[in-house]
Amino acid sequence: MTALSYVSEDKHSPWATHLAQVDRVLPYLGELSRWADTLRHPKRALIVDIPLEMDDGSVRHFEGYRVQHNLSRGPGKGGVRFHPDVTLDKVMALSAWMTVKCAAINLPFGGAKGGIRVDPRELSKKELERLTRRYTSEIGSIIGPQQDIPAPDVGTNPQVMAWMMDTWSMNVGMTSTGVVTGKPIHLGGSLGRVKATGRGVFVTGKVTAQRIGLELENARVAVQGFGNVGSVAAELFSQSGARVVTMQDHSATLHHSAGIDVAALIRWQQQHGSIAGFHGATTISHEAFWEQSCDILIPAALEGQITAESARKLVCRMVLEGANGPTLPEADDILTQRNITVVPDVICNAGGVTVSYFEWVQDFSSFFWSEDEINARLDKIMEQALLAIWQKSEQLAVSLRTAAYAVACERILTARKERGLYP
Ligand code: NAD
Q1: Cα 202 to averaged position of ligand 1 atoms, centre (Å)
Q2: For residue range 189-248, what is the model confidence (pLDDT) as tens digits?
Q3: Burial class for 237, CB neighbours closer than 10 Å (0-12, 13-18, 19+)
Q4: Pocket (CB within 6 angstroms of ligand 1)
Q5: What are the CA-CA distances from residue 255 to residues 102, 205, 285 (Å)?
Q6: Strand 296-299 relative to strand 318-320, pairing
Q7: Is 113 a catalytic residue?
C-alpha cells in the first residue's frame, strides 16, 4: 500500500485504528483482498478555511473538513462534528467507519464525515449560525442529496442541520430537504431520528443479552457520555428494568448502586447543561469510571476511550459501542481474551444512520411515516444485521467486529470490483 503523506504517524490515532481493523479482516476476504487498498485511501478529503466575524467585531479563522472515504455503494453519508479536538485524521477515520457501517447494515450509501475544529459552547447562537453557513458554502460543491448527505454528530443538532439545509438550498436556488438528515420535523426531518442511535444501542444490547444469557431486569449498566446517544440508551435500559449504576459526562462521574433515576438526570441536565451536581448519586473520580463493576458498559462519548489499560480493569460482560471508535485495537484483543462481548460501533450505533436513510427516502418521496412504523423498521433492521454478524463470527471463529468488517468489506469491495476502475 502507498502511505498517505497527510496522516498522523501516531499508532493510536483513529486512522491507525481503522487501518489495523482493515488488516485484521484481510485474511477473510479471499480474492476481494486485491481491492482492499481502496479502504486505506479516502476518495476525497477537503480542508476549508472558515473566516468568522465574531459578535465583538473581531475576525477568527476556523479549520473545517469534509472527507468522502468511499462512494462505491452510493452517495456519501456521515455526520458533522463541531469539537475542539477535530483533526483531519479523526474525520478520515470517522468517514471510513461510516463506509463500513452503511455496508454492514446494507444501506445504499458510502461513507463520509465532516467537522470544524471549534468549541461550539464558546460561540453565541448567531456566531454558530454564521460559522455553519460559511462551512456549508465552502463544502457545498461536494455535498448534495445524490452526492453526500451530512447529519448531526457531536456538537451539532437539528438546528445546525436546518441552517445547512437552508444555506445549500439558497445556493442552488431551490429548497432541497434531502441534502442533510437529522433536520427538524417540519423541515422534512423524520420522526424517531433524535432517539434512533440510542434506540439502536438498546436493541443490539437486548439481542446480545439474550445470546449470552444475561437478564436485563436488574442488569447493571455504566454509560460514558450523556448526550444524544448515551442519554437515550440509558433511558431505554432503565425503562426495561436495568439499573444505570454509573454515568459519566465531561463534567462529572456519578455512581449509585441502586440505579440512577435517569429521567431525573435528563431533567437536571436540561436545566444545568451537564450532569455535575446531580443530587441523586455519589460523585466519584473521572478515572474510577473504568473500575466500576457492571454487566453492560456503554462508551457513548468519544473515540479511543478503552485503552489496553482500561480493558484490563473492566468488570463487565458486554461492551456496547455507542460512540464511534471507542476501543483501541490492542484493547479489543484484551476484551476478546477476557471473554467480554463487544458489539462493535459499526453495528451498535448504526440506528442513527438507518433512520437518516429513512429520512432521506421520505424526503425524496415527500411521504412521511409514523413513529411506530419507523421504530418497527429500525428494530427489525438492527436485529437482523446483528444476527447475521453473530452467524458470520461463529462461521469464521472471529470477534463480532472482525465479522462485521468481513460482511461489510465483502459488500464494499464487490461493488468496487463490479464497477471497475475508471478510466
Ligand atoms: P453529544 O455531543 O450529544 O454527547 C457527547 C457526550 O459525551 C456529552 O455528554 C459529553 O459531556 C460527553 N463527553 C465529552 N467528552 C467527554 C469525556 N472526555 N469524558 C466523558 N464524557 C465526555 O454527542 P452524541 O451525538 O451523543 O455522540 C456521542 C458518540 O456517538 C460520538 O462518538 C458520535 O460519533 C457517536 N455517534 C453519534 C450518533 C448520533 O446520531 N448522534 C450516531 C452514531 C454515532
Answers
A1: 16
A2: 999 999 999 999 999 999 999 999 999 999 999 999 999 999 999 999 999 999 999 999
A3: buried
A4: 152-155, 197, 224-230, 248-250, 300-302, 322-324, 349, 352
A5: 35, 21, 10
A6: parallel
A7: yes
Supply the CATH classification number for the domain 196-348: 3.40.50.720
Residues 158/159/163/164 CA torsion (nearest 10 deg)? -30
Q: Under 8 Å CB-to-CB from 270, ≥6 apart: which residues?
A: none
Nearest residue to 279 via CA among 264, 291, 293: 264
Cα of 252 vs centre of ligand 1, distance in Å, is 14
| Residue at grid coordinates 409514523 | 370
Per DSSP, 72 falls in state T
Overall CATH class of domain 39-174 = alpha beta
Q: Read off the pTM.
A: 0.96
Q: Number of H helices and number of E strands within the chain? A: 13, 12
Please state the domain extents for the chain. Answer: 39-174, 196-348
Cα(195)–Cα(356) distance, integer angstroms: 11
The answer for residues whose C-beta is within 8 angstroms of residue 295's C-beta and 6 or more apart is: 214, 219, 220, 221, 316, 317, 318
* Contact in structure between 99 and 111 (CB atoms under 8 Å): yes
Q: What would the pLDDT profile of 153-184 be if each residue is shown by its tens digit?
A: 999 999 999 999 999 999 999 999 999 999 99
